[in-house]
Specification:
The chain has 273 residues and is of the alpha+beta class. It has 6 helices and 9 strands; from the N terminus they run ββααβαββαββααββ. α3 runs parallel beside α4. It binds adenosine-5'-diphosphate (ADP). The site of adenosine-5'-diphosphate has 20 residues, from α4 and α6. This is Stage 0 sporulation protein A homolog.
C-alpha cells in the first residue's frame, strides 16, 4: 500500500485533521515483476539464436565454406558486426532487467587495481588502435586491493574506456588512472573528447539517456552502458560521477572500497590531485 497524509488546517494554521489517501499498488508491483520477467525471458530466447548466427558467420568468414569472393566477405563482415551489436544490446537489456529485479549477483574477492586495469586495457587496445587512440595508464603497482567482482569491475572499465575511445578525436590519448582515496580506490578514465553539457552530467547515468549532439549521433548506442556501470559501482558500495568541460574532454571517475585493513600506511592522496 502507498500511503499519503495531507494535513487540513484552519486559516491560522492549526491542524484540524488529516486526509489519508491509500492506493493499492499490489497489482502494479505484480505487473512490474511480470514485465521484468518477460523482458528477461525474451532476451534469453533472442540470445541463443543470435549466438548461433554469429558462430556460423565466423566459420564462413574463417574459410569453412571455401574462399569467398571479396563482395561476399564484405557483406558477411557487415552481418557479423551487426550480430555483435545485437548481442551487446541483448546483454545490456538482460543486465538492466537483473538490476531492476534486484538480482544482480556480486561475488567479491580482493583484486589488484593494476591487474584489473591491465586486463581492461589489453582488451581495448585493438579498438583504440582502429581509431588511432593511445591508451595510457597511470596505476601504481602497490595500491591496496579492492573488494570486487572481477567480471563486473571489468565491465565498468570496459564501458568507460570504450566510451572514451568512441568520443575521442582521432590521434588523441585516453588516460586510465587509479589512486587510493580515504575509503577506497578511485579509478579515472580521462578523454579529450567533446565533453558533456553541465546540465546533463547527471542525466547520462539514467536509462536510455543520450546527449543529443553530433558526437552521440555519430557513435550510435543505446544509453544503457552508464546505467549499468552506476548500478554495478553502487552495488559494490562505491560512487560514480563525471567531470567535464565542453570542448575539452571528460573525466569519468568511480570508487571501489578496499579490502578490510587494506590501506597502505602512507597517507591517502586527496581527491582531485
Ligand atoms: P551509449 O554510449 O550507448 O549511448 P552510455 O550510457 O554509455 O550509452 O552513455 C550515455 C551518453 O552519455 C552517450 O550517448 C553520450 O551522449 C554521453 N557520453 C558517455 N560517455 C561520454 C564521453 N566519454 N564523452 C562524451 N559524452 C559521453
Amino acid at each position: 500500500f502507498h500511503e499519503f497524509a495531507a494535513p487540513v488546517t484552519d486559516t491560522e494554521g492549526h491542524v484540524l485533521g488529516r486526509i489519508y489517501v491509500y492506493r493499492d499498488i499490489t497489482k502494479e508491483t505484480e505487473l512490474d515483476r511480470m514485465k521484468t520477467e518477460f523482458i528477461a525471458t525474451v532476451s534469453h530466447e533472442l540470445r541463443t539464436p543470435m549466438t548461433s548466427i554469429k558462430g556460423a558467420l565466423g566459420l564462413v568468414l574463417g574459410g569453412a565454406a571455401g574462399d569467398l569472393p571479396p563482395e561476399a566477405r564484405e557483406l558477411l563482415t557487415i552481418a557479423r558486426n551487426n550480430t555483435d551489436r545485437l548481442i551487446r544490446l541483448i546483454n545490456d537489456i538482460l543486465d538492466i532487467s537483473r538490476i531492476e529485479a534486484g538480482k544482480m549477483e556480486i561475488r567479491r574477492a580482493p583484486l589488484s587495481p593494476a591487474d584489473v586495469v591491465r586486463r581492461a586495457v589489453e582488451e581495448m587496445n585493438a579498438f583504440a588502435r582502429q581509431r588511432n587512440i593511445t591508451l595510457t595508464t597511470d596505476v601504481p603497482e602497490g595500491l591496496a586491493r579492492v573488494m570486487a567482482d572481477a567480471d563486473r569491475l571489468h565491465q565498468v572499465l570496459d564501458n568507460l574506456i570504450s566510451n572514451a575511445i568512441k568520443f575521442s578525436p582521432q590521434g588523441s590519448e585516453v588516460l586510465i588512472r587509479a589512486r587510493e582515496t580515504g575509503d577506497g580506490v578511485r579509478f579515472d578514465v580521462i578523454d579529450r573528447g567533446p565533453g558533456i553539457p553541465a546540465d546533463q552530467t547527471g542525466l547520462i547515468f539514467e536509462r536510455f539517456y543520450r546527449v543529443d549532439n553530433a558526437a552521440s549521433r555519430k557513435t550510435g548506442g543505446t544509453g544503457l552502458g552508464l546505467t549499468i556501470c552506476k548500478a554495478i559501482v553502487e552495488e559494490h558500495g562505491g560512487q560514480i560521477w563525471v567531470e567535464s568541460a565542453l570542448g575539452e574532454g571528460s573525466t569519468f571517475s568511480f570508487t571501489i572500497p578496499v579490502e578490510p585493513g587494506g590501506h597502505v600506511a602512507e597517507p591517502p592522496i586527496p581527491v582531485g590531485s
